[in-house]
């Protein structure tokens, strides 16, 4: 691959990050609200703060967060900080930094989201491929239908329903938390089982609704590919159905599907905001949700930016991986 | 012809049927029901579904039947407004980019591509969160949702216009002395109607979903009986635990119906717009 | 990563954790929205509000206050006395047995260091009091501290030095803090020595585990018996929906939790007979907090500056309906700006107050009268049935806080709407700021003032605190009310003891003015409805078992006394 | 000396592949050609795939601009035409394209193809006049108007569709018609009909035709003159009879040799005999 | 098998497409036979059923189409009676198909070699990888391709090369019947000729029967021994190429031949009048009668002509010829 292309893709990546940071920086600052004051309001309102001179405290915090400088200066400083992956301090969990907050919640999110995304991607892709494959047995092809119907169910609602029916009513699975109360994480089998038990419902809430999307895109792709002459010719060659399915059909249809994967991450994270909260999981979603409630803007922006960067990075990586998968692109 | 097509495209048919049924429910409801009943303290409290209150009432004394009617209407309003704006902006930009090419195209395309990886819902949350709460109304809600929703349609329409533009009937129209505008509106646009319709339905789906999401996070216009708001209120009052199951379940199922129907229609329109998909049936 | 400033706190990860049986463990469900900075035990780090999540088991004050017994509970200090009649000097004598968890004794030096720190660091919550009032701080000997004041400070001992509810200051260890580069930024983690009964052994986003230590000074000093609870787990419920938390309580997963809304706790008690509340299994399930809520009004802002409008709003509030809708018939609605704690109840029942109440009838609900007043004030009803003047409806948006006013605010707003006020609720995070800046006209907020006599509550409305709109109102001084007549009464009773008859008649007159002028509209008493699970632990505080007299919240400063007082149920 | 209808002066077209790429395709090199106003002719441009035939057509129609050189229509550079002159050029230089399906807008009935130019160029005095002209043109190419009008393109056969295209050209009575592979996508059995229509257009209305094809069989039958392109270069030109029967350039010879003549006596590789009699 | 024994016999093959608009009988009792080494050209208008015939012989008709009857006997196996697995094994091994659109018939993301190897592996068990590879490179060589093509991807090849790869795949297992559906229609004349010559050569090499589908009569004249003419789903005439060009029997064939441009008749055009019928609304009786110069009356309108064999083995289906193969007058 030539250097120019690499450079262009990297430039694109930088542009995405820049655009996201700029939006995230300016939008909230267009409103006349003052996050630090509001934050102290949250503390003061329960009477928790004694009648101290809150204003002084606020002024001192403003300075600490650099909010007393002119907007443009703040902006340059902010861009510089982002370059160093430094999103500043969390307002509500001071003296934790945003990076700490993200680092602490990330493992949970990666654990949950990545696994569910991969499961729903794999499941959806296979079901979608099968649904579009005329030679598959009818019952197998129709297994995709319920998932397609479930695409209309937002993960939040799915989570609420699962929690109600399986958690409250049937009492089959724990109602929340990342693992049982009082257990400390260890590298043991029993901890793993306990952990998994707690992840099933949140995972299902995310998976059930999203499989359908993959089914649909794969089905559409599959139908297109199926009409391709090379699939027909493969059949003329007398290949077995399995081999055609795998080498000629699945493999070709998969390529565009993979692009969707990076983009899906954005949607999935958003779903996680509510689902993690619903089940009391301490992931990025919960961190974001809590930050929204506490108006902890450095954390909000940090997380939004972090996710954007992650997606952009994934997309950029895919651009480099793509040619390895598709020789046609390699040629150009 | 259309009917025969609908019989084959079952998803589209079912989707349209559900939407029509919901629309009917809403329209008849708005005619028959006093919309005031959709607001707190207008009915007995916490009543399970009964003859008097077919859908029950909630903790705050809303008649949930009225709330569902008004909420459905508001949800539809947000969806149509935001979807309409997103699609309209997308169509205009898509046409501009594809038809005039050059730097216009370069700029529009680059902006779209740069904005695409940014998780829209999160940005919407940031925007909704930094708005003054008093400014959050049904309309601002639609605007927030529409704000970052035009990139998808823009890219789709652009791609379609680009292929359309290369189609020979455009060349022939030029030879027939048709102007640029004539070509855009009379030759290309009509052929893109299925795509525009599909984009529109997709946008409406996205808008309904996003507004629902914002409401569930407590960022919606609070007093309004938006479906997301009702679920949010039920959640924060511990409705399930207190045995008021009908309160969250009704808006949840309404939401599922709306989104499901939109998904089906979208799928069906895809099939219509993309004859390759049609080929299997 | 190139960060400067505070070292980041980190999770506390145990090497190995000894087994502690469930029936020796106390599981508490708690979730302060995001404000826990994991690993931060140092009480000087702001805005960590961490005493609520178990850090109240680490750091102790000079004295606690038992609100239901109306008495000070000596703790690190054996005594704390004003040595001058004009309240300008105070002497503190420490318990000689008090010691830190690292074996060092708690000395007068530690107290002086704690006080000097408040004086020195702007970010500490009592900085203003120390800076404004305190003149000198000195250690007279190893166990004696003397504080002198620049002006009389009769309430300093109670307000600042004593821990009750969420206020008061904990004493910090000088020998550790002074070694830190910046004592207001050192997270503390598990290393910071503390005087309380528990050690932090594990802390991550899911939970915080504290284990009892054997050498707690207070047992040796005879303050209390050795605690039965071997381990406290503060479970972070993050923002799980409240019904899930309730269900987990019912399942005996938790022994206690955050406070609940009336309906939910009622259902919890029904579903698990082991669980009780402050009032047993009876409504209203909770104990009185010091924070009765009013519909505050910005008395300087048009049209709320017109007393007729304020009265009209007051007349639109249907307190009976509030009791019925939100509190299952429990009498929560109030007409007082202070909590009816024993002494205050006596005051409220006094004939002087009764006479004023008769005169102004502050709890009345009368829409016709309300409408009449509005018309008098020049308003007319528009097509939507909303009050309007000069073509603009009256903006009656109520600023409130979703997590605590989620039930009442919409109901109030709807009541106003039914009386023709264009009302809405703003649950935004800007709500508080709008009150402080005086931008908004209506807000739901508490009066964190009076505990013992009505003075502090009435003093909130003293003209000297009445800031102009735009400049920020001092804490709880949001009504911006100014009335020389009212001020004169307050100034007159200020130096008087609270059982002085002159104080009572003066205070009653002031309360009368409060009602007459509708400075704000008192709405509800604030209750803490905390579920207590007797399955593993008994001897929870309740109306019939006041124990040391503290309130029953395990997260308040006094929560340490609640937890160390628990007894095993034998299950 | 008669006036030149069309004069192509040393036109080259270079396609740049993307902005950053250094690769460029020279699709047409220094191409020159002159058509006389009063001597209407049929000129074949032949060559293998990718030799630049379509590029030439697009240049002549003004859809793309030449990299170097200029194209003069009635003595004026077509790149500089404005207003009335441009309208006239638009009308007088018309085309018939290769794909008889793609030229129809699938949204409209086939009438659209004919009504639009009538409207745009104001060819008819009234609606009825327009309809009459349409019917005339259709009849002239051997279609019955009632068979085709009001139908959608997919309801017609390829041959019918292509004949409507010719009818469109007829309706406009252009001075110059560019036919880019007009029969290569039409059934062999229908080719004859379409070529016949084109010939009639030339013969009856004096239209000059540039007939672009890779099929030398039909070229031989239709054209007067021929230009053979190879990778953008003109390798041979002259009257069609002599070029095909007696190719000079080796590429032309290869091309001629490869023609599958539907003639059992003329097998691949055998040289063509000079024509016996005319 | 004796030399004169036909290697391929198609009997009464019938295919119907069940479309939205009705049933379209795309093949209507088509019968013919072919001997080893023979080349048959199958011509006819677009939509006359040529590809359908090829696909039906491969048993690759997809819904909404259905094979409704008939036999396809290769050697002595009736393909129609095989089970699915048997048919799969027969493809490429007994009967190979070279597709119409070679441009897109190769998987763009697999190397050519892999696509050849998997074809062999699906039919031959227990052959070593290197042996299969040798077999493949030999096939490439026999279609005049460099063995290096084995490691290339489709996009690296020109149209003619791709077409030849398809041919190479077709002959990998030396089938007894090869069907090539318009193998050259997308190629320019020079390449077209090369490809046709390649087909000729490999056919000679493996002595297969070849069916060449196309509508270019010129190509047929150059390349085949026998010509079969299809019209509206039926075989209307089949005879040797010489007879077809010199003395076509069926009026449609006659029109077809006379519409051809000829070296000696410059500037004379004669098309076939009228339109190809839609399979959904076939004219009654003889499908060609509305376009037939020999009248539209009686028998032609009402009765479908059955194929008759004329002396010399030619076959024609037309009312002009009676059972003995003589022309009615
Ligand atoms: N828009 C374009 N961008 C870049 N290269 C082009 C473009 N159009 C054509 N070319 C190149 O220019 C050359 C000539 O193309 P052109 O289409 O004129 O050939 P042609 O003779 O019409 O071929 P065919 O017989 O296949 O239609 C080819 O190499 C082609 O790849
Ligand atoms: N999948 C299908 N569904 C419906 N009808 C079909 C289908 N495939 C083919 N047909 C019809 O069957 C008839 C024969 O088609 P076929 O493709 O065999 O023709 P052909 O002779 O190969 O034509 P061409 O020369 O265009 O390749 C046509 O009328 C066509 O419309
Ligand atoms: Mg071309
Ligand atoms: Mg075919």
Notes on the protein architecture:
- Chain A is built from 14 helices and no strands.
- Chain A is mainly alpha-helical and 332 residues long.
- The longest helix of chain A is centred in the middle third of the chain and has 38 residues, at 189-226.
- Chain D is of the alpha/beta class and 278 residues long.
- In chain D, 37% of the residues lie in helices and 24% in strands.
- Chain D has 10 helices and 10 strands.
- In chain D, strand 7 (176-180), helix 7 and strand 8 (208-213) form a beta-alpha-beta unit.
- In chain D, helix 3 packs parallel to helix 6 (158-172), helix 4 (127-140) crosses helix 6 and helix 6 (158-172) runs parallel beside helix 7.
- The mean pLDDT of chain D is 85.
- Chain E has helices at residues 50-57, 84-90, 112-121, 129-142, 159-170, 189-206, 217-223, 241-246, 251-258, 298-302, and strands spanning 6-19, 22-35, 39-44, 65-74, 77-78, 95-98, 177-181, 209-213, 226-231, 234-240, 308-309, 315-316.
- Chain E is globular.
- Chain E is an alpha/beta fold.
- In chain E, a hairpin with a 2-residue loop joins strand 4 (65-74) and strand 5.
- The model of chain E has no long low-confidence stretch (mean pLDDT 86).
- Chain E has a single domain, classed as P-loop containing nucleotide triphosphate hydrolases (Rossmann fold), CATH 3.40.50.300.
- At the A-C interface, helix 2, helix 3, helix 5, helix 8 and helix 11 of A face helix 2, strand 11, helix 6 and helix 15 of C.
- The complex binds adenosine-5'-triphosphate (ATP) (2 copies) and magnesium ion (MG) (2 copies).
- One adenosine-5'-triphosphate is lined by residues 17, 19, 24, 26, 44, 46-52, 64-65, 215, 279 of chain E.
- One magnesium ion binds next to helix 1 of chain D.
Order of helices and strands of chain D: EEEHEEHEHHHHEHEHEEHH
Mean pLDDT of chain D: 85
Q: Order of strands across the widest beta sheet of chain E?
A: 6-7-8-3-9-10-12-11
Task: Report low-confidence residues of chain E grouped into runs of 5 or more.
Answer: none
The averaged pLDDT of chain E comes out at 86
The structural class of chain D is alpha/beta
In total, the number of strands of chain E is 12
Fraction in helix of chain D = 25-40%
Assign the CATH superfamily of the domain at 4-104 and 175-257 in chain D: P-loop containing nucleotide triphosphate hydrolases
By CATH reckoning, the class of chain E would read Alpha Beta
Count of the domains of chain E: 1
Strands ordered across the widest β-sheet of chain D: 6-7-8-3-9-10
Order of helices and strands of chain E: EEEHEEHEHHHEHEHEEHHHEE
CATH superfamily of chain E: P-loop containing nucleotide triphosphate hydrolases
Cα shape of chain D: globular
Head-to-tail CA distance between termini of chain D: 30 Å
- Overall shape of chain E: globular
């Amino acid at each position: 691959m030539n250097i120019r292309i690499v450079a262009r893709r990297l430039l694109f990546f930088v542009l995405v990050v820049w655009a996201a940071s700029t939006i995230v920086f300016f939008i909230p600052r267009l409103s006349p609200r003052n996050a630090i004051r509001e934050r102290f309001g949250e503390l003061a309102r329960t009477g928790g703060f004694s009648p101290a001179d809150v204003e002084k405290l606020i002024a001192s915090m403003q300075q600490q967060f650099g909010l007393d400088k002119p907007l443009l200066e703040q902006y340059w400083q902010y861009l510089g900080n982002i370059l160093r992956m430094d999103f500043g301090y969390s307002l509500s969990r001071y003296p934790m930094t945003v990076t700490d907050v993200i680092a602490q919640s990330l493992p949970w999110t990666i654990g949950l989201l990545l696994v569910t995304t991969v499961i729903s991607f794999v499941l959806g892709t296979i079901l979608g491929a099968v649904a579009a494959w005329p030679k598959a047995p009818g019952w197998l092809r129709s297994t995709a239908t319920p998932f397609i119907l479930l695409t209309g169910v937002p993960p939040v609602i799915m989570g609420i329903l699962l929690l109600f029916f399986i958690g409250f009513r049937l009492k089959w699975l724990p109602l929340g938390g990342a693992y049982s109360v009082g257990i400390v994480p260890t590298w043991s089998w029993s901890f793993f089982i306990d952990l998994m038990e707690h992840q099933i419902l949140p995972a299902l809430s995310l998976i059930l609704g999203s499989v359908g999307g993959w089914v649909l895109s794969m089905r559409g792709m599959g139908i297109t590919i199926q009409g391709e002459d090379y699939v027909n010719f493969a059949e003329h060659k007398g290949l077995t159905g399995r081999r055609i399915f795998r080498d000629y059909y699945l493999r070709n249809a998969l390529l565009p599907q993979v692009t969707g994967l990076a983009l899906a991450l954005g949607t999935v994270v958003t779903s996680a905001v509510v689902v993690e909260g619903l089940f009391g999981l301490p992931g990025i979603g919960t961190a974001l949700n809590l930050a929204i409630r506490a108006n902890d803007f450095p954390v909000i922006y940090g997380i939004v930016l972090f996710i954007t960067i992650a997606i952009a990075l994934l997309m950029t990586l895919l651009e480099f991986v793509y040619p390895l998968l598709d020789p046609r692109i390699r040629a150009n | 012809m259309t009917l025969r097509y609908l019989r084959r495209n079952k998803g589209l048919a079912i989707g349209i049927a559900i939407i029509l049924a919901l629309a009917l429910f809403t329209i008849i409801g708005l005619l028959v029901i006093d919309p005031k009943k959709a607001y707190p303290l207008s009915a007995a409290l916490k009543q399970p579904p009964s003859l008097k209150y077919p859908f029950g009432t909630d903790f705050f004394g809303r008649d949930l039947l009225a709330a569902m009617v008004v909420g459905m209407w508001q949800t539809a309003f947000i969806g149509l407004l935001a979807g309409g704006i997103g699609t309209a902006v997308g169509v205009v930009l898509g046409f501009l980019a594809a038809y005039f090419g050059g730097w216009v195209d370069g700029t529009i395309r680059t902006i779209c591509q740069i904005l695409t990886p940014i998780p829209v819902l999160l940005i919407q949350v940031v925007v909704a969160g930094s708005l003054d709460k008093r400014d959050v109304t049904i309309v601002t809600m639609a605007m927030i949702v529409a704000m970052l929703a035009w990139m998808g349609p823009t890219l789709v329409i652009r791609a379609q216009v680009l292929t359309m533009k290369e189609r020979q009937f455009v060349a022939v129209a030029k030879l027939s002395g048709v102007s640029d505008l004539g070509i855009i509106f009379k030759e290309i646009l009509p052929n893109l109607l299925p795509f525009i319709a599909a984009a529109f339905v997709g946008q409406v789906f996205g808008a309904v979903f996003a507004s629902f999401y914002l409401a569930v996070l407590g960022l919606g216009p609070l007093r309004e009986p938006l479906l997301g708001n009702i679920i949010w209120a039920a959640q924060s009052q511990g409705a399930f635990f207190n045995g008021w199951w009908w309160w969250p379940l009704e808006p949840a199922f309404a939401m599922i119906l709306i989104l499901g129907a939109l998904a089906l229609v979208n799928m069906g329109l895809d099939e219509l717009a993309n004859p390759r998909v049609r080929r299997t049936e | 990563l190139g960060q400067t400033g505070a070292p980041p706190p980190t999770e506390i990860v145990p090497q190995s954790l000894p087994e502690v049986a469930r029936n020796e463990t106390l599981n508490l469900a708690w979730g302060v929205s995001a404000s826990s900075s994991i690993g931060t035990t140092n009480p000087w780090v702001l805005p960590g509000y961490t005493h609520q999540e178990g850090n109240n088991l680490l750091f102790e004050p000079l004295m606690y206050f038992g609100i239901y017994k109306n008495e000070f509970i000596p703790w690190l200090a054996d005594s704390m006395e004003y040595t001058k009649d004009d309240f300008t000097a105070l002497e503190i004598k420490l318990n000689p047995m008090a010691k830190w968890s690292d074996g060092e004794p708690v000395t007068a030096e530690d107290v002086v260091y704690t006080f000097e720190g408040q004086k020195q660091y702007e970010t500490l919550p009592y900085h203003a009091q120390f800076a404004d009032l305190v003149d000198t701080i000195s250690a007279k000997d190893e166990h004696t501290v003397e504080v002198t004041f620049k002006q009389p400070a009769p309430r300093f001992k109670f307000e600042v030095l004593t821990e009750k509810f969420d206020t008061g200051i904990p004493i910090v260890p000088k020998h550790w803090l002074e070694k830190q580069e910046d004592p207001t930024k050192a997270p503390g983690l598990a290393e910071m020595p503390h005087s309380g009964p528990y050690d932090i052994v594990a802390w991550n986003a899911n939970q915080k585990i504290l284990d009892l230590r054997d050498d707690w000074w207070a047992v040796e000093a005879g303050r209390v018996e050795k605690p039965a609870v071997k381990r406290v787990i503060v479970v972070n419920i993050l923002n799980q929906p409240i019904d899930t938390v309730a269900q987990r309580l019912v399942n005996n997963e938790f022994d206690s939790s955050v406070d609940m809304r009336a309906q939910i706790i009622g259902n919890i008690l029904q579903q698990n007979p082991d669980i009780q509340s402050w009032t047993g299994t009876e409504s209203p399930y909770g104990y009185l907090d010091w924070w009765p809520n009013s519909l505050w009004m910005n008395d300087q802002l048009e049209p709320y500056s017109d007393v007729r409008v304020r009265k009209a709003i007051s007349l639109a509030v249907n307190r009976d309906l509030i009791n019925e809708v939100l509190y299952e018939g429990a009498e929560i609605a109030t007409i007082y700006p202070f909590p009816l704690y024993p002494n205050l109840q006596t005051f409220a029942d006094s004939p002087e107050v009764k006479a004023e109440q008769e005169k102004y009838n502050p709890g009345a609900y009368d829409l016709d009268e309300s409408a009449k007043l509005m018309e008098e004030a020049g308003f007319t009803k528009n097509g939507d049935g909303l009050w309007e003047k000069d073509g603009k409806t009256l903006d009656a948006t109520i600023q409130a806080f979703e997590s605590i006013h989620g039930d009442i605010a919409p109901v109030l707003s709807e009541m106003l709407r039914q009386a023709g006020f264009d009302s809405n609720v703003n649950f935004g995070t800007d709500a508080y700021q709008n009150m402080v800046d005086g931008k908004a006209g209506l807000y739901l907020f508490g009066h964190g003032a009076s505990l013992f006599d009505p003075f502090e509550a009435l003093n909130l409305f003293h003209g000297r605190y009445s800031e102009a709109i735009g400049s920020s109102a001092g804490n709880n001084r949001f009504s911006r009310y100014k009335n020389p007549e009212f001020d004169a009464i307050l100034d007159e009773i200020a130096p008087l003891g609270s059982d002085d008859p002159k104080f009572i008649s003066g205070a009653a007159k002031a309360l009368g003015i409060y009602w007459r002028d509708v400075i704000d509209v008192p709405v509800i008493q604030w209750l803490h409805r905390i579920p207590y699970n007797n399955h593993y632990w008994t001897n929870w505080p309740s109306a019939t078992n006041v124990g040391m007299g503290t309130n029953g919240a395990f997260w308040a400063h006094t929560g340490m006394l609640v937890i160390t007082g628990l007894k095993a149920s034998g299950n | 000396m008669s006036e030149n209808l069309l004069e192509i002066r040393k036109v080259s077209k270079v396609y740049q592949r993307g902005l950053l790429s250094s690769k460029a395709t020279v699709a047409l090199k220094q191409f020159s050609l002159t058509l006389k106003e009063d001597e209407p002719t049929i000129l074949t441009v032949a060559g293998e795939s990718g030799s630049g035939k379509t590029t030439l057509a697009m240049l002549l129609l003004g859809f793309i601009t030449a990299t170097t050189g200029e194209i003069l229509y009635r003595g004026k550079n077509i790149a500089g035409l404005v207003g009335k002159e441009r309208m006239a050029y638009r009308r007088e230089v018309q085309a018939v394209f290769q794909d008889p399906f793609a030229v129809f807008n699938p949204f409209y009935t086939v009438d659209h193809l004919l009504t639009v130019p009538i409207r745009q160029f104001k060819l008819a005095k009234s609606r009825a006049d327009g309809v009459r002209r349409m019917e005339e043109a259709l009849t002239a190419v051997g279609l019955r108007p009632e068979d085709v009008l009001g139908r959608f393109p997919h309801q017609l056969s390829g041959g019918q569709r292509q004949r409507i295209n010719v009818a469109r050209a007829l309706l406009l009575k252009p001075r110059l018609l560019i036919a880019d592979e007009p029969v290569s996508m039409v059934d062999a059995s229908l080719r004859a009909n379409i070529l016949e229509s084109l010939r009639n257009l030339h013969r009856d209305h004096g239209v000059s035709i540039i007939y672009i094809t890779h099929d030398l069989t039909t070229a031989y039958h239709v054209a007067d003159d021929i230009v053979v392109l190879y990778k953008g270069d003109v390798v041979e030109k002259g009257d069609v009879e002599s070029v095909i029967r007696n190719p000079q350039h080796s590429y032309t010879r290869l091309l001629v040799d490869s023609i599958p003549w539907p003639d059992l006596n003329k097998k691949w590789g055998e040289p063509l005999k000079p024509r016996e009699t005319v | 098998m004796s030399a004169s024994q036909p290697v391929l016999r198609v009997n009464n093959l019938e295919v119907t497409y069940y479309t939205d608009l009705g049933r379209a009988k795309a093949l209507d009792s088509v019968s013919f036979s072919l001997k080893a080494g023979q080349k048959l050209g199958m011509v006819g208008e677009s939509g006359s059923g040529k590809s359908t015939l090829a696909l039906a012989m491969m048993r690759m008709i997809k819904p909404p189409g259905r094979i409704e009857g008939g036999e396809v006997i290769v050697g002595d196996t009736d393909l129609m009676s095989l089970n699915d697995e048997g048919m799969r094994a027969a493809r490429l091994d007994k009967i190979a198909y070279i597709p119409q659109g070679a441009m897109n018939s190769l998987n763009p993301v697999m190397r050519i070699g892999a696509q050849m190897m998997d074809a062999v592996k699906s039919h031959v068990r227990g052959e070593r990888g290197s042996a299969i590879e040798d077999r493949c490179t030999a096939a490439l060589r026999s279609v005049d391709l460099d063995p290096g093509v084995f490691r290339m991807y489709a996009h690296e090849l020109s149209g003619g090369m791709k077409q030849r790869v398809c041919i190479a795949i077709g002959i990998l297992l030396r089938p007894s019947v090869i069907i090539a559906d318009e193998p050259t229609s997308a190629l320019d004349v020079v390449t077209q000729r090369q490809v046709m010559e390649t087909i000729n050569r490999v056919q000679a090499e493996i002595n297969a029967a070849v069916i060449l589908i196309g509508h270019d009569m010129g190509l047929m004249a150059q390349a085949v021994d026998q010509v079969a003419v299809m019209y509206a789903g039926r075989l209307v005439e089949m005879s040797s190429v010489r007879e077809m060009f010199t003395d076509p029997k069926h009026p449609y064939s006659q029109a077809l031949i006379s519409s051809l441009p000829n070296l000696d008749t410059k500037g004379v055009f004669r098309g076939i009048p009228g339109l190809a019928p839609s399979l959904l609304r076939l004219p009654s009786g003889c499908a060609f009668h509305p376009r037939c110069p020999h009248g539209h009356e009686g028998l032609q309108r009402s009765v479908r002509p059955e194929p008759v064999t004329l002396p010399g083995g030619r076959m024609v289906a037309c009312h002009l010829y009676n059972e003995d193969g003589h022309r009615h007058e």
